[in-house]
Design a protein that fits this description.
With about 525 residues, this protein is α/β, with parallel strands linked by helices. The protein folds into four domains: about 280 residues, TIM Barrel, CATH 3.20.20.70; about 70 residues, no CATH class; about 60 residues, Double Stranded RNA Binding Domain; about 70 residues, Double Stranded RNA Binding Domain (2-Layer Sandwich). Helices cover about 40% and strands about 20% of the residues. The strands form five sheets. It has an eight-stranded parallel barrel with strand order 2-3-4-5-6-7-8-9, surrounded by seven helices. It has a three-stranded antiparallel beta sheet with strand order 13-14-15, covered by helices on one side. Strands 16-17-18 form a three-stranded antiparallel beta sheet. The radius of gyration is 29 Å and the shape is elongated.
């Protein structure tokens, strides 16, 4: 028998409290539409009384007809000095005109004494009065019992008394918050059982929710355990963003509930959008993708060891706990010095290259791969360079241009002025020699510009290419400034991205290798699409 659960997303409020997580009102709208497409039940848009951008968001989101998600506004119980109907925070929540409102109140007596500086009874009063005031004006009313687990462990009776007041106020769901993120999974069952027994004794049918933080790396575990014990709502953020160490990660919780725990909810039908949604939030927040993230990370279904790859080829279940396609991800076979023939054959199949395991070319490619990686080449993040390596071994790779020479000058005129870089290059394309020059922000940038300038006349689509990332790694630091370096370049156009690699004692030569592979790969793909 399937079970029901409600997914409550707080990326736009709790998530934005993460370090370096900054998004505009327009970005918040776009994320809301993406979460609605995903089938998230509730989207917490922010605290309307806290800043003007949240107010603007609630005004703007009303211009969109969401298919499934309901927007909620977040705030606190009233200030003790203000009657509920005159409290600016509560009035701002109603002015947001959302389908739902979530307010938090103090559960831990330490916070009542030290933060609010009021009596325990006065705190109970502001909880019930705040909720009673809001109840007639909103369709969904949730109560976040802030610091519940810490409060319960220090003063059990008082923590439970705060829940009683929330129930009297007409709350729809009591959300137990591990605000400091210090509660361990082994503590969750006994506390939730005590809460359930208390509610049953009072003949209350108000469901529980869970809101966990990740300070002990257990937010997902705590959330799943709470749900297994009867919690009907789970709160979290996309990619686990949040203050300090983050919140419970919905991109891990959602597939676990749907695929492993047999729960029903709208987003379960849209799991194929999960990886896309994860990347979408990262892109708008201008934060890097965590490749090691479960379910949605690029490495989540990546296989490197030859034995693993051979087994996965026969039956993916041997090294994959779910099919990657179910969460919109994909299987990746990594190419490295640990690769066996299975890796090479799988990669060739992906690229549409017809190779047989007994073909001597496979052994030759594997031998060259191991020799190159021994020199410092790394193909795990440079699939484009490896594809070119394979095609060269097969004799099918076209040379789009020939280098006749390049020179790079880096000149600094005085101590207080930045250096100026200039690159000159001679290349031959189809029997025609081109000699050109370009200035750049550093020698590598100058060389990149000069090469593109020379080639664009012959290959106009190169104007679409931009360099997304450039990394330099010193491989043999014991040789000091004469050390071998590896350059990894991430390039992209309007359709896709690709990685290339170069290795040399000379950083310009290593960069040149990676640049040439990047441009060659782009030209090859354009040619294949014609």
């Amino acid at each position: 028998m399937s079970k029901q659960i409600t997914i409550y997303d707080t990326t736009l409020r709790d998530g934005t409290q993460a370090e370096n997580f900054n998004i505009s009102v327009e970005d918040k709208i776009r994320i809301s539409l993406k979460l609605d497409e995903m089938g998230i039940d509730f989207i917490e848009g922010g605290w309307p009384g806290a800043n003007p951008s949240s107010v603007q968001y609630f005004e703007d989101i009303r211009n969109y007809a969401l298919k499934h998600s309901r927007i909620t506004a977040f705030g606190s119980t009233r200030n003790f000095n203000n009657p509920a109907d005159q409290d600016p925070n509560l009035k701002a929540l109603l002015a947001a005109k959302t389908a739902g409102i979530t307010i938090f109140g103090k559960t831990w007596d330490v916070h009542v004494h030290d933060a609010l500086r009021i009596s325990l009874d006065d705190n109970l009063l502001i909880i019930v009065e705040s909720l009673r005031f809001l109840r007639p004006h909103v369709r969904h009313l949730f109560y976040d019992a802030e610091h519940f687990f810490d409060g319960f462990k220090q003063n059990r009776e008082y923590a439970l008394a705060t829940l009683d007041q929330a129930i009297l106020g007409g709350v729809e769901c009591l959300v137990l918050c591990d605000t400091n993120g210090g509660t361990l999974p082994i503590e969750i069952p006994a506390i939730i059982a005590a809460v359930q027994a208390h509610l049953a004794a009072g003949k209350s049918a108000v469901p529980l929710g869970i809101h966990a933080h990740n300070d002990t790396e257990t937010a997902v575990a705590n959330s799943l355990i709470a749900i297994s014990l009867g919690a009907a709502q789970v709160q979290g953020t996309i990619n686990g963003y949040g203050e300090r160490c983050g919140n419970a990660n919905l991109t891990s919780i959602i597939p676990a509930l749907a695929l492993k725990m047999d729960y029903e909810f709208a987003a379960a039908a849209n799991l194929h959008l999960l990886s896309e949604t994860s990347r979408f939030v990262n892109e708008l927040a201008n934060l890097p993708h965590n490749k090691y993230q479960p379910y949605v990370g690029a490495a989540a279904f990546a296989h490197k060891g030859g034995i693993h790859v051979h087994a996965v080829e026969r039956n993916p279940l041997t090294y994959e706990h779910i099919e990657p396609e179910k969460v919109g991800n994909q299987r990746r076979i990594l190419i490295s010095d640990q690769s066996g023939k299975s890796n090479i054959l799988h990669k060739a199949k992906q690229l549409g290259l017809n190779l047989d395991s007994k073909d001597p070319v496979v052994t030759a490619i594997l031998k060259e791969l191991k020799e190159l990686e021994n020199q410092g080449f790394l193909y795990e993040g440079a699939d484009a360079s490896f594809e070119l390596l394979m095609r060269r071994a097969l004799g099918t790779q076209r040379r789009y241009f020939e280098l006749k020479g390049f020179r790079v000058i880096n000149q600094k005129d005085d101590m207080n002025s930045p250096p100026q870089a200039e690159a000159t290059i001679r290349i031959e394309v189809g029997g025609e020699t081109v000699h050109t020059a370009a200035m750049g922000d550093g020698p590598v940038n100058a060389l990149d510009k000069a090469l593109r300038k020379a080639l664009t006349r012959f290959y106009p689509k190169l104007t679409d290419v931009r360099l997304e990332d450039y990394k330099v790694r010193v491989l043999t630091s014991e040789h000091g400034t004469g050390a071998r370096v590896r350059v990894l370049i991430e390039s992209c156009d309007s359709h896709t991205s690709w990685g290339t690699v170069g290795v040399s004692h000379d950083i310009l030569e290593a960069s040149w290798q990676a640049l040439v592979d990047s441009i060659t790969f782009k030209l090859m793909k354009d040619e294949q699409e014609q």
